[in-house]
Amino acid sequence: MTMRIDLTRRATLVGLSTMALSGGALAHPPKKGGTLTFLQTSEPNTLVSLTTTATPALTNSAKVTEGLLEYDYDIKPRASLATEWSISEDGKTYTFKLRPNVKFHDGKPFTSADVAYSIQLLKTVHPRGRNTFANVTEVKTPDPLTAIIELSKPAPYLIKALTAAESPIVPKHVYEGADPLTTQNNNAPIGTGPYLFKEWVRGSHVIYERNPNYWNPDLPRIDRMVCKFVVDASARSIAFENGSGDIGYRTPVALPDLDRLKKLPQLVFETDGTSYSYNVQLLQFNLDSQYFKNLKVRQAVAHAIDRAAMVKVVMYGYGTVCASPIAPGLKEFHDPTPSPYNFDLKKAEQLLDEAGFPRGANKIRFKVPMDFNPVADDGRKSAEFLRAALSRIGIQVEVRAQDLPAFAKRIYTDRDFDFTYNGHSNLFDPTVGVQRVYWSKNFKKGVPFSNGSNYNNPKVDALLEGAAIEIDPAKRRQMFIDFQKIVAEELPDVSLYSPLYLTIKNKRVHEDSMTADGVESNMAQVWLDS
Amino acid sequence: MRMGRRIAATLKRTAIHAGPTMLGIIVIDFLFLQLMPGDAADVMATEAGAATAETVAALRHQFGIDQPVLTQLLNFLGHLAHFDLGYSPRFNTSVLDLILQRLPNTLLLMVTALSFALLLGIVLGSIMAAWAGKWQDRLLSVVVLLLYSMPGFWVGLMAIVLFSVKLGWLPNDGNETIGVPLTGFAMIADRAAHLVLPALALASFFIAVYARLTRAAMLEVQRQDFMRTARAKGLHPFLIQMRHALRNALVPVTTVAGMHLGNLLGGAVVVETLFGWPGMGRLALEAVLARDFSVLLGVLLLSSLLVIVANVAIDLLHAWLDPRVEAA
Predict the structure, then answer these.
(1) C-beta separation of A69 from A82 below 8 A
(2) Around A356, how many Cα atoms within 13 Å sit in the side-chain half-sphere?
(3) For residue B35, with 0-12 CB atoms within 10 Å meaning exposed, 13-18 middle and 19 or more buried, which class applies?
(4) What is the pLDDT of residues A279-320, one digit of tens each?
C-alpha cells in the first residue's frame, strides 16, 4: 500500500498545475446556462459504451455514465467516482475509496456493489475489457464505499483504463437480470453523470439536460447539451461557419476545408484532450503474399516511401511522421529512432533486383492490388499516394476500394489481400492497443484488427507477454523499445504517421477538454459565453 | 355508381397483385443481400476498433446470422406472417418502430417534392405550350434544360451555399430546430423553413421532366378536333386551355409521376444525407453499410408497399381524369 500517498499527492499536484494552466479561463468566471450543440459525425448504436468501443458510443457515454477515474493530459489519474486509490507492491491488488453521497439519476445510491458488478460485466461483455480485466479474479466490497480488485497477475495498464468511456460504471439494479446487449438502458441511460438523458430521435440527435442533483454542486454549468448527428462533412463545415454547431472533435471537417475555416474569427482549433487515444497509420503486409513474404521486397517498399511528404500531401501537415508501431504521443514507450530503411529509391531498386523481381515489360516489376481501410477519410488518398510512390520503383499497384464490412471480411476472414493501408488505435497503453497486431497468438481469422499480417516471432511474443505483467516501469519501457526495434527491422508492416486530431469549437465554448480524453469525458465543466 | 365499381375493381386487382409482388421482392432482395461481402458482426466489430473472437461470435449469434441462410429466410418470413418486421440488434429496437420514426419525415419530403415538381412543372409547361416558339418558350426551355441536366445533390449544395451560408435565410441541416420547444405557427414555420431546400433539391430534376411532358402533351392536344370545336363554341381561351387542353395533357404527366415515386425514394438517399434529414433513405443507406438486413428488408418492403399504393392512386386519378379509361 505504499503507492497510495505517492499517487494521490501527484494527483493533487497535477490538479493544481492544470488550474494554473487554465488561468485564462479563471480570469473570467464561468457562466451558467445555455445550450451546447455538439456536432457528431455518426450516430451511436447505444448510449452506453459497455458492449462496444465504437467511437460514436464513446463520444456520448460519459455524459450520463461515469468512471472511477479521469486523467490529465499526461494520463495521470485524477479522482472521479473514486476519490482515493492505491496499488499493492506486487501489482495485484487495487483498492478504491469511493465518493460518498453519489446517487444515480433514479435516486438509488451508488455503492461498491455497482463497481464490482460493472467490472465483472466489463470482463465478460466489453470488447477490450475482456483483455483489460482478464486477470481479475474477484472484486471485493468490504463496505459500500470500498472496492478492491484482486488480480491473478499484475496488469500495469489497468490503472489507465478507468475512464468513464472505456470502463463505464453502470447501475447494478438496472442491469441485474437484463441482457447488457439489449437492455433499454442502452437507449435511455441512467447513471451518476452530470447530464440527464432527455431524448434520442434516431437519425437526428440526442438531448441531455443538466443534472440538478450532481455530486459536485457547482457542476454542470450548461442547461442542455444537444448532440447532433451530421453525417455529411460539408454540412458540418457549414454548421461551424453559421454558428449552428458549437463543437466537434477528431477533426470533424474535411481537411481541405480547414484553411477556409481557420480564417473565421469565431472558431478556435485545439489539440488538448486528444492524448487518451493515438492512431498509427500503416501499410500492412500479408506475410503469406507471394511478393511480401520476401523481406527484401518489404524493405524495398519501406525505402520507397517518403513519410514526411505523405503527411504533407495526404494529411495537409496534420500528422506526425512515425516509423514505429507505438505512436509518438505515447512518449513513455515510443521509440523515436528513425526507420532503418530510409527514403532511398536506388536502394529500393537494388533490393527488388536482388529479390528476383527485375523490371520487365513497360519497366514494371510486378502488379499487386492494395486495399485501404475505408473508415477514415484519408484512406483513399493515402492509398493513391502509396501507389504513386511504389510506381517509381516499378511496382504497379491497383487500388481496390470497398466498404467497411467487405474490407474486414477480405483482410481478416478471407485473407485475400497482399497489402493494405490500415490504421490502429494505440489507446492509452501498448499492451491494450498495440500487442493485438503483433502477437502471434492473436492471429485469429474473422477478428478485426487482430494480427492481420500473420506475423510470428517468438521473441516479440515473449517481449509483449512480459510487458503485459511487468510492474517496473523502466523494465517495461525497455521491453517495448526492444519490441519496436525488432518490428522496425522485420517489417510486418511499414508504420507511416500518426494523425493529429483537432477539436473545432466556437469561441463561446470554454473548459470543454480538461482531461486526456477531452470531449469524450463527462464534460461537466464546459460553459458558454451568453 | 360506375365510379364506385371502378374503384372496387382497381382495389381488387391491386390486392391480388400486391401480395405475390411483395413476397417476390422480399425473397429476391434477401438472396441478393446474401451476396454482399461481410456481415453485420464484421461491421460492429470493425467499428469498435477492437474485438476478440468471443465478441464476434456473440454478435453473430445476436444477429441470428450464425444460422443457415434458409433458416434465416424462413424466420424472417415467419415473423412477417405475423406482421412483425423483426428486431434490429444494431439499433437495439424493433424494425417497425425504427421505420415508423422515419417514415413520416420521408413521406413529408417526398410529397412536398412531388407537389413542387408537379405544380411548377405543369405551370412552366403550360406557359411554354401557350407561347410555343415565342421568346417565353425559348427562355423557359433553357431553364428547364438546366434543371434537367444538373444533379439534384449539386442543386442542393449550391442552394445551401447561397441560402444557408451567404444569405443565412434557411437552415441547411435537419428537419427542425433541435432543443427549442416550439408550438403552433412557430413550429410550422420552423418545419417549413427546414423543408424548402431539400424538397426543391429533390424536385429540381422532376420539375424539368414534367414541364417538358406538359408542353409536349398540350401541343398535341391543341391539334385535336374537340379543341377546334371548343374554340368554335366561343369559349374563353383560358377556359379552353384549362378545362380541355390541360386536363387531357395531365394523363401522361400523372402516369410518369406515379412511376417516379420509386425514383424519388432513391433520390431521397442522397438528399437526406446532404441535408441531414432523418428519413428512410438514410436509414436504408446506413442499413446497407452496416449489413443490417432486417432493417433493410423492412425498408424495402415498406417502400414497395408505398409504390404499390401510389400506383393505385394514379390509376384512380386516371379514371377520374379520363372517363374512357377502364379500370380493367
Answers:
(1) yes
(2) 6
(3) exposed
(4) 999 999 999 999 999 999 999 999 999 999 999 999 999 999
A470/A326 Cα distance (integer angstroms): 18
pLDDT at B2: 65
Average pLDDT, chain B: 85
- Alpha carbons B32 and B68: distance in angstroms, whole number: 15
Contact B42 A375 (CB under 8 A): no
Q: Number of helices and strands (H, E) in chain A?
A: 17, 21
CB contact under 8 A, A407 and B38: yes
Determine whether the interchain pair A232/B62 forms a contact, defined as Cβ–Cβ distance below 8 Å.
Answer: no
Region A394-420: what's the mean pLDDT?
94
Our separate counts of H helices and E strands in chain B read 13, 2
Under an 8 A CB cutoff, do B274 and A448 touch?
no
**Chain B residues touching A450 at Cβ < 8 A:** 51
Contact A181 B56 (CB under 8 A): no
Residue whose C-alpha is closest to residue B166's, from A238, A329, A260: A238
Beta-bridge partners for A133? none
> For residues A497 and A310, is the Cβ–Cβ distance under 8 A?
yes
Q: Is the pLDDT higher at A14 or at A341?
A: A341
DSSP-based three-state secondary structure for A280: strand
State the Cα–Cα distance between residues A432 and A430, nearest whole angstrom.
5
| Mutation target among A238, A264, A414, A416 for the B interface, most CBs of B within 10 A | A238
Within 8 A by CB and 6+ apart from B20, the residues are: none
Q: In chain B, what is the straight-line distance between the N-terminal and C-terminal CA atoms, in Å?
A: 16
Distances B224 to A471, B128, B240 between C-alpha atoms, Å:
95, 18, 12
In this complex, how many residue pairs, one in chain A and one in chain B, have their CB atoms less than 8 Å apart?
166
Write down the ipTM of this complex: 0.82
Contact B175 A204 (CB under 8 A): yes
CA distance A182 to chain B (A): 6
Query: Which chain A residue's Cα is nearest to B48?
Result: A54
Cα A320 to Cα A330: distance, rounded to the nearest angstrom? 12
pLDDT of residue B316 exceeding 90, the answer is no
List of E strands, chain B: 87-88, 93-94
* Distance of residue A511 Cα from the nearest chain B Cα, in angstroms: 22
- Distance, in Å, from the CA atom of A363 to the CA atom of A515, rounded to the nearest integer, reads 54
- Amino acid of residue A200: W
Compute the distance between CA of residue A71 and CA of residue A77 in angstroms, rounded to an integer. 4
Give the span between the Cα atoms of B39 and B72, in whole angstroms.
13
- The alpha carbon dihedral of A215, A219, A223, A226 has a sign of negative
Instruction: Quote the radius of gyration of chain B (alpha carbons, Å).
Output: 24
The phi and psi torsions of A405 (rounded to 5 degrees) equal: -65, -35
Pick among B52, B90, B166, B296 to test the A interface (most A CBs inside 10 A)? B52
Q: Cβ-count burial of B191 within 10 angstroms (0-12 exposed, 13-18 middle, 19+ buried)?
A: middle
Cβ B52–A235 below 8 Å, yes or no? Answer: no
Q: pTM of the entire structure?
A: 0.87
Cα–Cα distance, A325 to A483 (Å, whole number)? 9
- Alpha carbon of B29: minimum distance to chain A alpha carbons (Å): 18
The beta-carbon neighbor of A242 closest among B36, B90, B165 is B165
